[in-house]
Amino acid sequence: MADCAFDVAGIGNAIVDVLSHADDAKLHSLGVSKGVMTLIDSDQAEKIYAQMGPGVECSGGSAANTIAGVAGLGGKGAYIGKVRNDQLGQVFRHDLRSLRVAFDTADAVDGAATARCLILVTPDAQRSMLTYLGACVSLGPDDIDPTVIANAQVTYLEGYLWDPPQAKEAFRKAARIAHEAGRKVALSLSDPFCVDRHRAEFLELLADHVDIVFANEAEITSLYQTDLDDALRQVREHCDIAAITRSEKGSVVIAGEQVVVQGAEPVSQVVDTTGAGDLYAAGFLYGLTQGRDLGTAARLGGICAAEIISHVGARPEADLAKLVAHTSFITV
Predict the structure, then answer these.
(1) Closest residue by Cα to residue 169 from 11, 7, 8
(2) 123-164: per-residue pLDDT in tens?
(3) What's 6-13+61-85+135-325's CATH class?
(4) Which of 115, 144, 227, 262 has the fewest CB atoms below 10 angstroms from its CB?
(5) For the segment 25-84, what is each residue's pLDDT rounded down to a tens digit?
(6) Distance between CA 125 and CA 205 in Å, rounded?
(7) For the segment 178-237, what is each residue's pLDDT rounded down to a tens digit?
(8) How many Å apart are CA 301 and CA 308, to the nearest integer?
(9) Cα–Cα dist 188/164, whole Å
(10) Domain boundaries, the chain
(11) Which residues, in sequence order, are CB contacts of 67 under 8 Å at separation 6+?
């Protein structure tokens, strides 16, 4: 598959992250619950956004974080997600393209505004998140570009997007195109709450459409409603590769009868675990699409995850390509 235009094409919720500092008094005045994620409607989103202080706006969402990580490692990434033709939609598109990620999904010209996650960071490093899903959940099968999918080694599906019916159709269409072109399909289970809502459908996806699954320990045990050892035994019957992250215990990768156990990379201080799974997937998929063995791919995932949890935010602060270039198994 070396002739592919893209290493990884991601499909997910296109969300702009808006990060701003605030004190407890500001949270109280805005009616924000500290340290948790709250879903909000469009009126709340506009009101709170207008009252936030100076901040940073960048493209976000789980699959977008993964594709940005792939690009940061030197891979060729593409992204499919829905934004509105508004200011934040322009921010999202410009930000991803500035990372050399191909993003050509047409803007929504009416309906809900671009999705956003308003993140208020207090001096104690607590992140209070208010999420407006907006336009991103309107992505449908017509937004799937067959040329992009057929020319990506791996198409990566974000489990968070599985809720809307039209997104399910889009995922199945993308998987069909990928497999007809001889490519691979990966799925992130995203969150235990996603698994609880969609267990039967996720199991069907794994059995019929997915070659590679990414999950943490809570997600995979929830999927099979059993302990980790039994879940690992069952998942090998459903897909070719399962990459399971285990926080400070590292990760375990299952591929048929092959089992790879990879320890966690050292981190001086865990600051913020947001995006750890996204960047693990980025490192793993980069390694896999560059022809690396599963152990190397898992270690690359661990290195990227360790970088993310060492600071606030779900995008790397370090140059990932330089970071992995210092490891003995990478040839630059």
Answers:
(1) 11
(2) 876 778 899 999 999 999 999 999 999 999 999 999 989 989
(3) alpha beta
(4) 227
(5) 999 999 888 877 788 999 999 999 999 988 888 888 999 999 999 999 999 999 999 999
(6) 38
(7) 999 999 999 999 888 889 999 999 999 999 999 999 999 999 999 999 999 999 999 999
(8) 11
(9) 16
(10) 6-13+61-85+135-325
(11) 8, 9, 10, 77, 78, 79, 96, 101, 156, 282
Query: Which of 180, 190, 132 has its CA nearest to residue 11?
Result: 190
Neighbours of 326 (CB within 10 A): 9
Element (H, E) at 188: strand 184-188
Structure tokens at 91: 């921010």
Rounded Cα distance, 61 and 115, in Å: 10
Across the beta sheet with 127-132, the strand order is 37-39, 127-132, 115-121, 15-21, 55-60
3-state secondary structure 138-176: HCCHHHCCHHHHHCEEEEEEEHHHHCCHHHHHHHHHHHH
How far is the C-alpha of 232 from the C-alpha of 221, rounded, in Å? 9
Q: Which of 109, 105, 110 is nearest to 142 (CA)?
A: 105
Question: Rounded CA gap, 314 and 275, in Å?
Answer: 5
CA distance to 23, 60, 137, 186, per residue, from 170 (Å):
41, 20, 11, 14
Do residues 82 and 61 lie in contact, with contact meaning Cβ atoms separated by under 8 Å? no
Round to the nearest angstrom and report the end-to-end CA distance of the chain: 20
